[in-house]
Amino acid sequence: MTPLALAATLFALPMARELRLIGGLGVRVLSGNKARVTLDVDLVVSTSAAAGSLRAHLEADGWKVGDAGAYFRARKAGEPAIDVFVDPVTNPRTFESTRLSQPPVERVVDGARYVVAAPHDIAFLKLCAGRDQDAIDVAILAAAEPLVASSLVAIAEANDLEIRLAEGAQRFRNLVQRAAIETVAAELLGRPFGADERESLARLLAQLQVEGT
């Protein structure tokens, strides 16, 4: 099963109204087939109770689920991994937390309904993560959805993560300035980096710089 098809089954569950797609798959649902192919499903669950219900469903369906808490991973042979975060999203590497701050977005893809975290929330999480693949995701997202630098700064201020946002933005700038982003895009997307994607990312990073980030 593809990650998108797997996500569709999760959004058919009783607790689906509490689920939000994030990560690369969230970008793909928002921006279409221009996004990179991802191998997992990243979900935010709005309440601990809903996370417990999702965990119980997965275990009953034969998934091996990691330790319970604010984050857990579910695995099953032959299926994409499912990473589940309870809002606020805690980065498993830095243990920093970010609360989703904007209304989610609903999309229908091939007849299946998905609820995705707001574009600004996804972009903020990816700027804080700061990996090469995150720069590509933000570029594609910025080309598909209007992203406003001041909204990202507001999310950072609300979560005391201004420094992390600034660090991520600078990593992305370095990637663009070295032209390394073209190579990364070719590797991850299997196609040339689009001019609209390049320009959208550059514009967002310039706006963040004006905001002092």
Structural class, by secondary structure, is: alpha+beta
For the residues shown, what is the average pLDDT? 95
Order of helices and strands: HEHEHEEEEEEEHHHHHH
Integer-rounded radius of gyration: 17 Å
Largest sheet: 5 strands, mixed
Beta-strand portion reads: 15-25%
Low-confidence segments, ≥5 residues, pLDDT <50?
none
The count of DSSP E runs of length 2 or more, i.e. the number of strands, is 9
Helix content: 40-55%
End-to-end gap: 40 Å
What distinguishing features does this structure have?
globular, 213 residues, five-stranded mixed beta sheet, Beta Polymerase, domain 2
Q: How would you describe this structure to a colleague?
A:
- With 213 residues, the chain is α+β, with helices and mostly antiparallel strands.
- It folds into two domains: 3-118, Beta Polymerase, domain 2 (2-Layer Sandwich), CATH 3.30.460; 121-210, no CATH class.
- The protein is 50% helix and 17% strand.
- It contains nine helices and nine strands.
- The protein has helices spanning 3-10, 23-31, 48-60, 119-129, 132-144, 149-158, 162-177, 180-189, 195-210, and strands at 19-22, 40-45, 64-65, 71-75, 81-86, 89-90, 97-98, 105-109, 112-116.
- Strands 1-2-5-4-3 form a five-stranded mixed β-sheet. It has a two-stranded antiparallel ribbon with strand order 6-7.
- A hairpin with a 6-residue loop joins strand 6 and strand 7 (97-98).
- The model has no long low-confidence stretch (mean pLDDT 95).
